[in-house]
Design brief:
Shape: elongated
Number of helices: 3
Distance between the termini: 53 Å
Order of helices and strands: HEEHEEEEEEH
Strand order of the largest sheet: 3-4-5
Strand content: 25-35%
Number of domains: 2
CATH superfamily of the largest domain: Pleckstrin-homology domain (PH domain)/Phosphotyrosine-binding domain (PTB)
CATH class of the largest domain: Mainly Beta
Number of strands: 8
Length: about 150
């Protein structure tokens, strides 16, 4: 996915620079284009390219202690005891972590677009989760205080 986003960002920059270079300087009663407008269009292309590349910064890192999720703007660091299940439904575009408190954390770094890479990632997360659960099983909540 990051490769596709990098290519799209490069295309955006090239197209916007070409538009800026071919934009004729003109002065008439309706519009007035000049070098400042050409620079602005090229700058807008760079800003748009940065936005496209920013979409690809999502990431999932995991080890025996827990999982760290970096989505677009939100970061999570969770121990395996807080995770109930690692999910990737057939109709989902990305994986998710079902937490013990009923919440769900999206894993934008594991997208269905990545095909076998995403499958390997989910399987590795499930293996780490199972190993952590076997080492430290979660006790059910107490229903009554004694």
């Amino acid at each position: 996915m990051r490769l596709v986003l990098a290519v799209v960002a490069a295309v955006v920059v090239v197209v916007m620079v070409l538009v800026a270079l071919t934009l004729p300087s003109t002065t008439n009663t309706v519009v007035d284009y000049g070098p400042v407008d050409q620079v602005a269009i090229a700058g807008l292309g760079l800003v748009l390219a940065f936005g496209v590349v920013f979409l690809g910064r999502s990431r999932v890192d995991a080890d025996a202690d827990g999982v760290r999720v970096r989505n677009l703007l939100v970061h999570h660091q969770l121990p395996w005891t807080a995770v109930r299940a690692v999910r990737f439904d057939r109709t989902s575009y990305w994986g998710s972590l079902l937490l013990e408190n009923g919440d769900e954390v999206s894993l934008l770094g594991l997208q269905s677009f990545d095909a076998q890479s995403a499958v390997r990632g989910v399987e590795a997360l499930r293996a780490l989760h199972a190993a952590a659960r076997a080492k430290d099983p979660v006790r059910p909540p107490l229903l009554y205080d004694d």
